[in-house]
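thread: overnight batch results

M.L. [08:02]
morning all. the overnight job finished for the chain we discussed friday. pasting input first so we're all looking at the same thing
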Amino acid sequence: MRRVLLALTAAVVVLSTSAAGFMAVNGPYRVSVVLDNATNIIVGSLVKVNGFDAGTVDAIEVVGGKAKLVLDLDGDHAPLHDGAQVSVTWKALLGERLVNITDGPDGNAEIPSGGMITGTQQSPVELDTVLAALDAPTRDKLNSLTRNLNETLAGSEPDINGTLKTAGPAVGALGDVLRGIGTDGEAVKQLVTQLNRTMEILARRDNDVARVVDQLGGAVDQVVAQRQALGDTLKQLPGTLDQAVTTLGNVPDTVDAAVPLLQALEPATEKLPSVSGNLRPLLADLRPAIGDLRPTLVSASRLLQETPGLLDLGATTVPELNTTFTGLTPALDYLRPYSPELAGFLTNWNSANANYDGNGHYARIYVTAGAENVNVNPGVLPPGTTKDLAPLPGSLVDQPWTDAFGEGMR
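M.L. [08:03]
and the structure it wrote out:
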């Protein structure tokens, strides 16, 4: 029991001597800072630690002609460390300011609650200082402008006062806007900088932007056309859906009719594995034949490439040939009865010009034997025979040749 009491006593001492312990025992964590003035700083003004909202101004006192601020900080940002600095910055372009604390290194000693930290504040710029910085001609022009403004506004003071009273809400709203801009001043600065860079890039790529806009216009036109086509398709969709419903309604009956067929095919399908196994050697034997067939297929491919042209040429030539043969038909009809004499003439002509026979001999003997060769009586013909030493062309087919007057050969 004595050891437990000693441990509790040591814990209380440690907590009481540390900033965290002080917070746990004595309440919130507060620090003080002395500034030259507390202009636009009010009780409840925001306090930031390393850029994060950390608390508020709890009290403002006057000590030795200066302003002493008591800062109430959240436990998440306490305790501060030796070397912490306080600065006062604008919360908005007009109006309230905020207190910004930059904490010291974590390795430094902790500042206990109620301790003092160092503060800095920018000196206010007086109007006299601004006017003193102007040269003489500028001051003269400013005085002239002030006099002219005084003469212009003379007699209009009630109207100006009424205007200012009426503009109060607008000025208040403008103050809120400016206060918001001041709160996000860094973000606004970055936004303006990025916007400036963006406009410079757009200025350098004016032609590209114009081209993109033109292409965007074309894309919009295509979207409109596609939208119209989609509308037409949607109009046709109900009929298609009705047809699909009808088709799907017939599917169960078709499936029911297909089940017996599949059951009948089951014995054949069971034999397919063995058949496919027997086909493998056949396919292996066909592989060389298919390889030999490749040149033929290549030649056939080339032939088929030339075939359309040949067919086109034939399509233009065949009608002309048909016309030509149709025109030759009367002449062929006329020459047909005389074809035996023409064949005999060509044969005799060939024989007269052939100095060698089929065996390569220069001379040959051609013996013609018939029923008249045994007749030794001149002028007496054997029975059933006739003799015509000068037959007319075409007489063999009972179409003897005649001249224009219908007479035979003379």
